[in-house]
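seq as requested:
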Amino acid sequence: MSIVPFPDGAEKYDNFRESLLGSPSVLNEPKILEIPEMDLQAMWFGGEFGREFTGTQGEKIEIVQFGHWNHSSGPDFTETAVKIDGELCRGDIEIELDSKSWEQHGHGANDAFDGVILHIFLNESSDEFYTRNSRHESVPQLKLDQNLLLYARARDLPEAFPGRCLAPLHDMSDEAVASLLESAAQFRARMKYDRLKAMADSTSARQTIFQAICEALGFRYNKTAMAILSQRNPLPDLLSLNPAEREARIFGAAGFMETESYHSSLSEDASAYLKTLWSHWWKVRPEVEPETEDRKIQWKLSGTRPMNHPQRRVGALAAVLNRWHLLTVIWERPGEDLEKKWETRCDELSHDYWENHYTLNSKPSKSPMKLIGKDRQRDILGNVIFPWCLGRHQDLWSTFAEMGGVDSNEKLRRAQLRLFGEGSPEAKKFSRKYFQQQALLQIYHDFCLEDASECRDCPFPEQLKQWQ
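struct tokens:
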């Protein structure tokens, strides 16, 4: 339960949800969860699991220092500091999906892993397993909470069809539906704040907001890749560099420099831009570039529009960093004109190259392009800035509630279809505002995605009358 004094609707929806589903995100039995190992490492390093834990042998574990991403072979994180039953230990941390991966990957016989002070895993094999290093010393183990991962990660979308809740929602008064959606949206905002607060408690508030904005710039497919980029290039380190050095570092750390050459560029301006990046990148390359393939950030290129190519998203990040000191005022000293200030600052972002190019080696576009479009501006505002500010200033809810919605996307269309039906007036009426769209996505997440009976056994339709 959050200790943040969010508007009362968040608590009301939380109680309603739990009364129907009995805390659906809580696992009764351990499951084998599949997730890319680097995604899991990014969640850990970002502080989403917290700092204090209980080890597999009942040890009290506190993460004092998360250390650094290792860009070469060996343990995942180096120079960490961990208190185990009150004793401070310094060394490395290894994170894996399964407890037995330690031996399967040969870590137990590899002296490069002798400095590991904590072995972390998500899935525990049925047989009890003890982690040993090449000196036959026992390494403390920590099993991560699967519940946190389950709720955080999106699952496959169910087939789109009108749900059984059409009739009860249609019979409800507009006031009752509006109340339900406002409460669900407040609950969703509180969940987002809780995640950001946990991350900030583990790292820092500024680094947390930086990572969250990077994730939003990555869109759906490259959210984790952008998060890792922000973690491997912490905000203080980037702000200490001049713009040209900073830009070269993030493009190089992203892995985009190794495949691009200004000698074979498709245009003169692309060649000149790449030449400038390379003139700075080679100086920091040994300290920043991953040495092994499995350490490289994995980007997804298919399914993304040219304007949203990952290289262009990193270019937008460079522009954001150049104006960072002006942007931070928006969430550090929010006011009623928060939305207007954010849109103004985003519209002011500029970059001589990325306003006119899709990639590092592309020909110029026919017309200038915004670095951050209107929908992406609103998603960053609604998913990051407003939830963070609401955790400290709940009176901002009325300002948030006035924010207009974004263009429809696949998840939103499915939620509208399930709850209101194809092309219904209610679907339009109750999805004009951004908070209404967030509410529909939350209900869809809690009930449609939890249901495994194609709507037949879902408790939501019959119990809607409880809301009234």
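Confidence is low (pLDDT under 50) at residues 24-28.
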